[in-house]
Amino acid sequence: MSINLTIRQLELFAQASRCSTFSEAAEKLHISQPALSVAIRKIETELGVTLFERTTRHLALTADGRQLAAVADDLIRDFRVALQGVASRAAGLHGRLAIAVLPSIAASILPHALHSLQRKYPGIDVALFDVMHDRAVRMVEDGVADFAVTTRTAEGGLLVYDVIGADRIHLVCRNDHPLAGKGPLPWRALDGHPYVAMAGSTSVRRLADAVLLQADFSLRPRYEVEQIASAIALVSAGLGVTALPALTFSMFAGEKLTMRPLVRPALSRQLGLLRLKARVLSAPAQALANEIVAAFGSSVGRRGPSPFDAPTPRGPGKRS
Fold it and tell me: Does residue 317 come out as left (phi exceeding 0), alpha (psi in the -120 to 50 range) or beta?
């Protein structure tokens, strides 16, 4: 049996069940007494039961009426709480968002962005996945992450990628290393020194291999690691030198290391915000994207509007 009662009908019945007459209930509901009587009859017809005894001038609930009265207020309250929850999440007051970012992003610009988000949306929980590029892309494609901050991915119809800036590659070595010094350093200066390379699955390694190949120069790794922390540990132990983007520096700020920009060729990895084209970001997710763009601009001197803001005229080459 299909029963169709509205919350308004339950509200009318609940108020009537608490009053001694229909007139009293109608007055509190700000409707006429005949309108209330008609509404109650419709509820009884829909349920196929009698809710009130009508043999007295005072309202008296039947057994069925008492059973419905016992649950009506709870149903109304639960419905209102549910609506308030939806409204709160829509307004960004409560809820959860998930983002996938490169480990260097998580260690550098993200904490500041999250602080700003917390001030604006204190009721929002954030699931942070600090992962490599390939997994970040998959998490966006699968809908696990609202958006990702990563390097440029292959163009596709489902994804939107917006550039937020570039992160320059530097030599990292111990302060007592022969290559320690100031100013830019050509890549060929690394030849002959044990080199700690990032694994082929990382964006840094792919970029370096591709560009150095074009420059007809290559470095044979003495060591190969997947994690930046591992590369720094080997460099700090005097086992070699490595090449890392500037945003990774915050991950080893306390170490006695020297960083020098690498040139000929100068390498920079492009970073941007990746999301599903069909996915509309929630207010908190968009706010966090804005804060990440601002934090990135503060870190590397490339400030600009968030690509997730309201549409504005764009220059060419901004979106894939």
Answer: left
d(CA 247, CA 106): 10
For 65-97, letters b (16+ CB in 10 Å) and e give: beebbeebeeebeeeeeeeeeeeebeebbbbeb
The structure tokens 């960083």 sit at 259
- CA 137 – CA 148 distance, rounded (Å): 7
DSSP single-letter state for residue 26? H
Q: Which one-letter amino acid corresponds to residue 220?
A: R
Cite the beta strand spans of 52-115 per DSSP E: 52-53, 60-61, 95-101
The residue type found at 318 is K
Q: What is the pLDDT of residues 130-155, one digit of tens each?
A: 998 889 999 999 999 999 999 987 66
Does the reported pTM lie above 0.70?
no
In which residue are the tokens 């306390």 written? 254
Q: Round to whole Å and give the CA distance between 93 and 89.
A: 6
Write out pLDDT tens, residues 162-193.
Answer: 999 899 999 999 999 999 988 999 999 999 99
- Residues constituting the chain: 320
Q: CA-CA distance, 16 to 3, in Å (whole number)?
A: 21
Residue 124 pairs in a beta bridge with: 95
Beta strands 223-225 and 195-198 are parallel
Token pair belonging to 259: 């960083």
Antiparallel, parallel or unpaired: β 159-174 and 268-276:
antiparallel
Locate 129 and state its tokens. 């996945």
Cα–Cα separations (whole angstroms), residue 232 to 102, 252, 253, 257:
17, 7, 11, 9
Residue matched to tokens 């007139």 = 23
DSSP output for 250-310: GGGTTS-EEEEEEETTT-EEEEEEEEETTPPPPHHHHHHHHHHHHHHHHHHS-----TTSS
